Amino acid sequence: MWNLSFGFFGVQIAYALQSANISRIFATLGADPHDLSFFWILPPLMGMIVQPLVGSFSDKTGAAGDVASPISTSARWSPCW
User: In the predicted model, what is the mean pLDDT of the chain?
Assistant: First the structure.
């Protein structure tokens, strides 16, 4: 349990460092400082769009012998399908 907790702690530290420096990295790459908010909102929006699509496609695939459900597993929980 300790190793698992310590690993997640490392992931959180890495995420915090990335979040703290990403605006500076984008500015160094040439992004306009007034447009940095678009770079922050795009990943969550793409996750809301792409993740349900990938889940829908993966629900339609299955191993040989699987019985397909009339309602896929992610379609029950996704309000946009």
Answer: 76
Tokens 């309602």, residue located: 71
pLDDT score of 13 more than 80: yes
Structure tokens at 10: 């490392």
Half-sphere exposure of 26 (CA within 13 A, CB side): 16
What does the pLDDT read at residue 65?
Answer: 47
> What is the C-alpha to C-alpha distance for residues 17 and 48, in angstroms, rounded to an integer?
24
